Amino acid sequence: MLKLFWIGHASFWVQEPVSIVIDPFDENVSSHFPAIQAQIVTESHQHFDHCAHGRVKGPFDLLSKAEKKTFPSVTVQGFPAFHDKEGGRKRGANILFKFTFPDGLTLLHSGDLGHRLNADEVKDLGKIDILCVPVGGTYTLDAVEAAAFAEDVNPAVVVPMHFKTPLMSQLAELDLFLKALGWPTERRELLTVSKTDLRDAGKTCAVLSALIQEK
Which of 40, 136, 190, 205 has the fewest CB atoms within 10 Å of its CB? Predict the structure, then answer.
């Protein structure tokens, strides 16, 4: 059973079956960060709002490269991509991290993806059950591009991130993405799901409540 919390911005906490913090942000985003003991921390790229692993309690394994690592309760694989549409020349590289859990459930965190993937790149990702995707534009995919990327990847659940909140007011509103995607939307405190739960379920956009909501 996966328990996924949205910390805020592009940061998430997988509480179960193994404690993973994804893309922790620094004090420029918020002076607050939950006191989490993690076993694994992943960072999609080394920008201040995605790489503050010093705020996470360890000891933990830090993953920040496009490589594959296997742990007792999860396999993590990084896929190389870019933060822009110019092959990284404007904002650099970005890693998409795929997490495969013991029951076969898969989660893909897209980091600050700035471009659509081509058909071969999407195929290389394999089956994705849950997709965390940036939707706020400016530095990443915008609402329409993110919706198209979600259709390309074809997950059961999409979790939007990296949109306008009190933490990042310069990004576009979430509603633009929800309208572009057009999937049924559920607002939740956290996402609790197993592979079995998804077998007969339709597509869903899960909007999670952020654990951190103020600067």
Answer: 190
Euclidean distance between the first and the last CA atom of the chain, given in angstroms as a whole number: 32
- What is the H or E stretch that residue 98 is in? strand 93-100
If you search the block for the tokens 């965190």, which residue do you land on? 109
Specify the number of domains making up the chain: 1
Domain containing 41 — which CATH number?
3.60.15.10
Mean pLDDT value across residues 66-72: 97
Closest CA to 110 of 178, 22, 198, 188: 22
88-113 burial by CB neighbour count: b if 16+ within 10 A, else e? beebebbbbbbbbbeeebbbbbbbbb
Q: Using a cut of 0.85, tell me whether the model's pTM lies above it.
A: yes
Distance CA 99, CA 108 (A): 6
Count of Cβ atoms closer than 10 Å to residue 87 Cβ:
9
Mean local confidence (pLDDT), 56-83: 96
Bridge partners (DSSP) listed for residue 134: 161
Identity of residue 110: S
